[in-house]
Every structure is written in C-alpha cells, then in structure tokens.
Amino acid sequence: MKIFSKEQIYKGDKLTAKKQNITSTELMERAGTQIFNWIHQRMQGAQVPIHVFCGIGNNGGDGLVLARQLINYGYNVHTYVVNCSDKRTQDFLVNYERIKQTTKKWPIMLNCKADFPPIGPDDIIVDAVFGIGLNRPPNEWVKSLFQHFRASNAFTLAIDLPSGLYADKVPEDEDGVVWANYTLSFQSPKLVFFLPDTSKYTRQWEALDIGIDLEFLQQTDTEVELIGKNEMLPIYKPREKFSNKGTYGHGLLIGGSYGKIGAMILSGRATLASGAGLVTTFIPKCGYIPMQSVVPEAMVITDVDDEKLTAIKFEIAPTAIGIGMGMGQDEKTQTTFQKFLKSNSVPLVIDADGINLLSKHKDDLKLLKPQTVLTPHPKELERLLGKWKNDFDKLKKAKAFSKKYKCIIVIKGAHTITVFEDKLYVNSTGNPGLATGGTGDVLTGIITGLICQGYEPLTASLFGVYLHGKSADIAVEDYGYQSLTASHVVDYVAQAFLDLFAMPPAQPPAENEEENL
Ligand SMILES: NC(=O)C1=CN([C@@H]2O[C@H](COP(=O)(O)OP(=O)(O)OC[C@H]3O[C@@H](n4cnc5c(N)ncnc54)[C@H](O)[C@@H]3O)[C@@H](O)[C@H]2O)[C@@H](O)CC1
Ligand SMILES: Nc1ncnc2c1ncn2[C@@H]1O[C@H](COP(=O)(O)OP(=O)(O)O)[C@@H](O)[C@H]1O
Ligand SMILES: [K+]
C-alpha cells in the first residue's frame, strides 16, 4: 500500500474533484460519510454521548459532516468548534451552516479561554481538531484541551490523524498531541503511525476509501510503501516441477564464536526453512558437533581456530552469504572479515557483529558491493550512522547512507523499515513476541535463503522481513508473547508461506440459502 506525502494528498484531493466533476465540499461529504458509516456499523444507534471536537480547517469540516449525520440518525451528539483562529476554510463554513440548519443544538463555540465540557470515561471523543494542515504547535489552551481528552479516559477516535501530529515531522511536546485509541485515515495511513517516536499517538488505525482518483493512486510514485500480503504475493516464486536442490541456491552462513554457536544454528535452520537448496555454515571448531547434531541438513566448514573466526576460507561457490551472527569482534576476526569483504563478489547479508565491525572501521564500508543488505537493530544502526535527533532525522541519515554505499538497510524494530536509496518500505507484520534473543539471526537466515532462490536483494529483504513477522504472528497464537522464542519463528516460517495462499474462511450459508439446499 502506498503511503502518500502531505503534498500528494492535497494534489490527489484536487485532481479527484476535477476528474470526477465534484466540488471539494462533496469530497468532504464523502469523507465524513465514510467515518459516519464506520461508527454507525459499530454503534447501531447506541446512545453513548459522542463529543465531536472540530477545528476550523477541513479536518474540522469532516467533523461537522460526521456530527450532522450522527444527529440525523438520532445519536447523542455534542458538537464543539475549537475556535482559536479565524482562518476558517470554505468547506468548514459550508458545513457549519448545514449543521445549524439540521439541529437546534448548534455547535458550541470554544474560544481559546473557554472552560472544557465534561467528558465521562464511557463517552466517545471524536477528534477533528487538526489534520494534515497543522503548521505550528498548538497553543497552551489547545494543549490543555488535549490533556482534558486524555484525562477523561474516553475512547478517542481521531479523524485522518491525531490532532497535533504532523504528517512529516515529530512533534516536540507530547502534551500537544491527542492520544487516540483509533484513527480513521483517508485513503492511506500516514508514515507517523509506524515510527517509534510517534506510533504511540494512535493504538490502531484504518484507512477509509474516499474514492480518490484511481489513476492518481496507481500512477503516483510514493517515497514510502507499507508492505503486506498484497505486495508480497505477486513477487512469490513458485517451484518448478523438474527443479532440484541446485535450482534453489547454496547459502553460506559465516559467524559464531565460543558461546554463540546458537546464533548460527538459528540462521542455518532459517535459511533452510526459507527454501535454500543447500546450506553450509562456516564456524569456529567448537561449533562443529552442535551444528552437525542440531542441523543435520547443513554442511559445516570450520575455521582453524577453536573459539573464533580467524581465517575465512572455503572452496564452495555459494549463491548468497549471510555473515556476522554471533561472530564476535576479535582483532583476528576483524582482519579476516576485512579480507573477506575485499575478495567477495557474492550477494551478501551483513548482521550483528559484521555491522559492529564496519562501524568501528568505517573505511571498510567502501568495500561493500552494491545491494549489500545490512540488518541493524537500533543500537547497531546508531553505531553505523551516529546519533539522530528523531525518527525523521534517522530516516534521512539512513537514506543518505544507503545512497552513498548503494546498500539496503533493514532497520529492525516493531515496524521494520527497509531503506534503499530514497525509498522506505514499512513492514506490517510482527509483534512484541519477537523481542527475544536470536530472532534477528533468524531474519538474516531467511533473507539469505531468499536471495539463494533468485530474489533480488531488495525483494528478498522485504519478503524476508514480511515472512519473519508473519511467522511470529502465527506462532504467537500458540505460544503467547512471553514464551515465543526464535526457534518457534523458524518452525512457523512454513505457516507464513502457506498463509500467502490462504483463502478467507468460508461464510456460513445465509438462512434462506440453507433451506434451498
Ligand atoms: N482537501 C480535501 O478535499 C479533503 C480534506 N480532508 C481533510 O482536510 C484535512 C486537511 O485540512 P486543512 O488543510 O484545512 O487543515 P486542517 O484541518 O488540518 O487544519 C489546519 C487549519 O488550522 C490552522 N492551524 C494549523 N496549525 C494550527 C495551530 N497550531 N493552532 C491553530 N490553528 C492551526 C491552519 O491555518 C488551518 O486553517 C485533512 O487532514 C482531512 O481531514 C478531507 O475532508 C478529505 C477531503
Ligand atoms: N516489539 C517488536 N515488535 C515486532 N518485532 C520486533 C519487536 N522487537 C523486536 N522485533 C524484531 O525482532 C528481531 C530482533 O532482532 P535483533 O535485535 O537483531 O535480535 P538478536 O540479535 O537477538 O537476533 C528484529 O527482526 C525485530 O524487527
Ligand atoms: K484529527
């Protein structure tokens, strides 16, 4: 799913009105009606007090359309206008007149000094104060109003995005933002729903289709994409009947040190589970017996050293290599890693200590071949890029780094973001059950295994991150968040693949249909 920028959203709205020969007021009516339908479907006329807070821009206009429709359907509505500026938009004014003609209970004007209306914990707040047009931090009174929302503990539904949140930057003061339970966003979600700094402002979101011009939606290139099943299904490569293990590539995993052979076992198992034809692991001697016993499918080459890597040498011709898991940062390991980078021409995924060594020896970054995949967690990323001010600064730095070294950066986290040059791919799968040791090793194994099977490194990264998260989403149903381990993630990769083709559960036949059977 494309995530449009603020500028693109405004452009899409304008173009839609023009191409569909409708006014912006009619488009607003559509938007407000979609929100109404969403609420009406769930509330079915329940008389819970609904407090609709409207700003004076078009977000407020959406709120007024919604309030009018709720009133028409007999809901218990209280409408307020947060009236701190006189720059009212045309469509706000049209809808302000319309609501006044609908009901005697006119919207209550809250000027910037007014007392706040009482809100009960079982009431509902609709936040239509600011949308994507916010251009400065809210004033103190508006901030207190937002805190009043929060203190009420009422369910808060934000329209388009929580007020006080910008579409493209991090707000400075968290009290100046509405903390929503749910956000109904028009046409596509906003990037801020997925970033660690700003995702806390909405617990859940949903995108509502307001009929934006299809050609515009299809043809507009966006900087950000949300990756889910719809995006991954078309890239899936089915297996050929007359294929053999050679068809699916030979994955080589390099890493491990005394006490960290488990990382390599997990990666090795994951590379196999993702479909690589053959897997070889290159590990210190101490790992030979555990690896052969636990992963009988994998071949093993050992370093001359017992406990760490000192001389990476192999005579096989791998299709893809994953390196760094549990590798340690010994000086000898650093030397052999650097030598390996100089001579290697095979597609490469670098994880963990591989990334840490690059961060310590930044000169080595120029040894990376184009489209090398790096899979840092936040601390590893910080070592690589230096400190960032906020998430947008982090992404800017990551894009610059990706362009400079032509590499793919998989920024791991609750919503892993894969960065390649100017593009950002936000993953939609995964859950906090993954916050456990070894899951990163599994991810590296999966991505390496996918490259082995002919997926381009970028596609393999996106697909790998998707499958890894999906596997955890299915496994968590059986193990719960606390007990989920990295081994379970490997075990459920199979389910993640199968889920790509799962049909939605069949609906029971309607009553009259049953009679006809
Ligand atoms: N353009 C369209 O046709 C559509 C727009 N829609 C809605 O329109 C919204 C964008 O509307 P707008 O561009 O009017 O902007 P907003 O409604 O987001 O509000 C910004 C308004 O508040 C003022 N403002 C900004 N920061 C402020 C602050 N800190 N304190 C006080 N006032 C402040 C601005 O001057 C502007 O008038 C979207 O988020 C969406 O909800 C929807 O109705 C769909 C269709
Ligand atoms: N709260 C979370 N929600 C979803 N995914 C998470 C969460 N925490 C961690 N993950 C995922 O788990 C993996 C952890 O990787 P990493 O920190 O490298 O672990 P390790 O080094 O122990 O293997 C990453 O893929 C990350 O995206
Ligand atoms: K809002």
Walkthrough of the structure:
It holds the Pfam family YjeF_N. With 517 residues, the protein is an alpha/beta fold. It folds into 2 domains: 220 residues, Rossmann fold, CATH 3.40.50; 263 residues, Ribokinase (UDP-N-acetylmuramoyl-L-alanine:D-glutamate ligase), CATH 3.40.1190. The strands form 2 sheets. The chain has an 11-stranded mixed beta sheet, sandwiched between helices. The chain has a 7-stranded parallel beta sheet with strand order 4-3-2-5-6-7-8, with helices on both faces. The longest helix has 27 residues. The mean pLDDT is 96. Bound molecules: ligand NAX, adenosine-5'-diphosphate and potassium ion. Adenosine-5'-diphosphate (ADP) binds next to helix 14.
